[in-house]
Amino acid sequence: MRIVIVGGGIVGTALAARLGEGDDAVALCERSSLGNETTAASAGMFMWERPSPARFGQRLRDRAWSTYGDLLERDAISADRLGILHVAESEGFAATLEEAAETLEEYGVDASFVSPAELSAFGVEPDGFSGGLRTTADHAFEPTELVTAFADRARDRGVDVRTETEVTDVVLADGAVAGVETDDGHLEADVVVNAAGPWAPTLNEWAGVSLPLCHTLGPMLALEGKSTADLPFTLFESRRYVRPVGDARAYVGEFQTDYVEGQRYEPTELRIPDDFRAAALSIDDVVPGLVDHSVVDEWVGLRTVTPDGLPIVGETETPGFYAACGPTGLGITLAPAIADVLAETLEGTVEPTVKSRLSPDRFSG
Question: FAD dependent oxidoreductase domain location, by residue (predicted)?
Answer without folding.
Answer: 2-344
